[in-house]
TrEMBL record:
PANTHER family named among the record's database cross-references: 5'-NUCLEOTIDASE (PTHR43434:SF20), PHOSPHOGLYCOLATE PHOSPHATASE (PTHR43434)
InterPro entries with a match to the protein in the record: HAD-like_hydrolase_sf, HAD-like_sf, HAD_sf, PGP-like_dom2
Protein name: Haloacid dehalogenase-like hydrolase
Pfam (any one): HAD
Lineage, broadest ranks: Bacteria, Bacillati, Actinomycetota, Actinomycetes, Kitasatosporales
SUPFAM superfamilies: HAD-like (SSF56784)
């Protein structure tokens, strides 16, 4: 059984469960698609981009990667170009992470809502979910790290699942239970050090964890 967090991070009500999910490297393996998009961007602009390196550090906003390859004053325009090119080059090459659909289904089976909160540009995030048949109740994009707390609070999320230390910070800022999956650029030790309440190997472990978590909460309420 899991250990319940302090009162500030317990679910807000015993009846309505809302779970937030990060997107890249949590619900989707976007590395092949993003690699292809960076390669096309490099060819389009004539600027070298180490695509292999770029896809090892997914999570932070796009501008934080582009600044490594383009002058700062060009980054906003290049970011717009990348987003314009993204649907053609990145969507069909992206895969669902193992257990992603089952994790969302587990939330639904528990009578809850699944909300995707991501740093990715929202229209492209929705394209990924539509293409892969991952049916979220809401999608909020363009938010990173602590900024994610805004959407998590607005949707009443009591749990946030992500693969990056920035996702842990977002969960903690929102007073949500931080569930980390070691499927992205941050390993389990980094995620624990950042303050994750629990670290799972991947989302295939999430349905069982959720069942235990809800059981512990019900016991706490009865007590």
């Amino acid at each position: 059984m899991v250990h319940m967090p302090i009162a500030s991070t317990t679910p807000r009500t015993p009846h309505l469960l809302t779970v937030g999910f990060d997107l890249d490297m949590t619900l989707i393996d976007s590395r092949p698609g993003i690699h292809a998009c960076y390669r096309a961007l490099s060819e389009r602009t004539g600027t070298y981009i180490d695509c292999d390196l770029a896809v090892t550090r997914l999570g932070p906003p796009l501008a934080e990667e582009l600044i490594n390859w383009f002058p700062a004053d060009q980054v906003p325009a290049i970011a717009d170009l990348y987003r314009e090119m993204y649907p053609v080059h990145a969507v069909t090459g992206t895969l669902a992470m193992p257990g992603a659909r089952e994790a969302v289904a587990a939330v639904r089976a528990a009578g809850g809502r699944a909300v995707v909160v991501t740093a990715k540009w929202e229209p492209n995030a929705k394209l990924h979910l539509d293409h892969l048949g991952i049916d979220a109740d809401a999608v909020v994009g363009n938010l990173w790290a602590e900024q994610k707390a805004q959407a998590l609070r607005e949707h009443g999320a009591s749990v946030y699942v992500g693969d990056h230390t920035g996702d842990v910070r977002g969960a903690r800022t929102a007073d949500a239970y931080s569930v980390a999956v070691a499927t992205g650029p941050c390993d389990a030790a980094e995620l624990r050090a950042a303050g994750a309440d629990v670290v799972l190997a991947d989302l295939t472990e999430f349905p069982a964890w959720l069942s235990d978590y809800r059981g512990d909460y019900r016991e706490a309420v009865r007590a």
